[in-house]
Each structure stands twice: as C-alpha cells, then as structure tokens.
C-alpha cells in the first residue's frame, strides 16, 4: 500500500520506481517454480502409505479451490471498497498512442499459424530462457 500511495501522491517518483516493481515481479517468478517443485517432491518422498497419497490428492484440489475462491472474493471486495479508476474520465481520442506501438507492432506481423507454433518451444533450453519478443516461450 505504501508504494501505491507514492504513485498516487508523487506520480513522477512512482514512475521512476517502476524498475523496482518489475524487479520484484521477476524475483517472485523466479522463486515460485522451485518452491512448488520442492514442496511436491518433499511431500511425495515423505509419504509412507498409499492411502496418504490419495488423501493429499483429494486435499490439494480442494485447498486450491478454497484459496482461489477466497482470493477472488477478497479482490472483489477490495475493488468495491477502493473503486480504482473511479473519477478518471479519459477521452480516448485525445490519447497519444505512440507509446503503445511497442506492444502492438509485434502482433501486426504475426498470423494465427505463427502464434500457434510459437506456443511450442523449439528446444528445452529456449523454453526456460526468457526471450523478449516471444511472449509464450517464457
């Protein structure tokens, strides 16, 4: 909330702090996969009986559904309480669209077949390496 407040009250400082936010998101992305892998492996190794595996197999999707529902409800409550974007009236005809060209130019040169073939990585190394222009390969 503190960083949101900085962006609200000091927009120039908020824009200057964007690299910190991007770095934080990248660090989270780096950490998530090893944590999930470690958790699954240690749980499977720690199970001595087959019945315990079945119970975990039932509990995991149930836990996922409950936690996802709680997160969805919390997000909806926060949107209704805070109302982000309320009071902002923007005329789309007056916006400068030159800044969007970076994001939209890649889609203009790609057709459906190219898009579908880019989903599948050409090598296992490429699958794990971030490639800037190929969204689905990372």
Structural features, described:
By secondary structure, the protein is mainly alpha-helical. 70% of the residues lie in helices and 0% in strands. It contains seven helices and no strands. The chain has helices at 2-9, 11-16, 18-46, 50-82, 101-108, 112-119, 124-128. It is extended, with a radius of gyration of 22 Å.
Low-confidence blocks of residues: none
Strand content: under 5%
Report the C-alpha radius of gyration, rounded: 22 Å
Portion in helices: over 70%
Give the termini separation: 29 Å
Helix/strand class: mainly alpha
Compute the average pLDDT.
77
The overall strand count is: 0
Order of helices and strands: HHHHHHH
Please state the overall shape, judged from the principal axes of the Cα atoms: extended
The helix count comes to: 7
Q: Biggest sheet: strands, sense, closure? A: none
Brief summary of the model shown:
The chain has helices at residues 2-9, 11-16, 18-46, 50-82, 101-108, 112-119, 124-128. By secondary structure, the protein is mainly α.
Descriptive labels:
0% strand, 7 helices, 138 residues, mainly alpha, 70% helix
List the helices and strands and how they pair.
Elements (H helix, E strand, L loop, with lengths): L1 H8 L1 H6 L1 H29 L3 H33 L18 H8 L3 H8 L4 H5 L10
């Amino acid at each position: 909330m503190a960083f949101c407040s900085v962006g609200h009250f000091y927009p120039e400082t908020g824009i200057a702090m964007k690299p910190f936010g991007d770095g934080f998101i990248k660090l989270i992305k780096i950490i998530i996969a090893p944590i999930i892998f470690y958790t699954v492996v240690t749980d499977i190794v720690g199970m001595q009986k087959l019945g315990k595996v079945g119970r975990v197999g039932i509990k995991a999707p149930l836990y996922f559904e409950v936690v996802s529902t709680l997160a969805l409800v919390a997000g909806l409550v926060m949107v209704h309480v805070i109302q982000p974007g309320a009071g902002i009236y923007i005329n789309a005809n007056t916006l400068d669209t030159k800044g969007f060209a970076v994001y939209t130019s890649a889609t203009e040169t790609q057709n459906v077949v190219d898009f579908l073939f880019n989903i599948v990585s050409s090598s296992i190394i490429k699958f794990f390496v971030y490639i800037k222009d190929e969204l689905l390969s990372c």
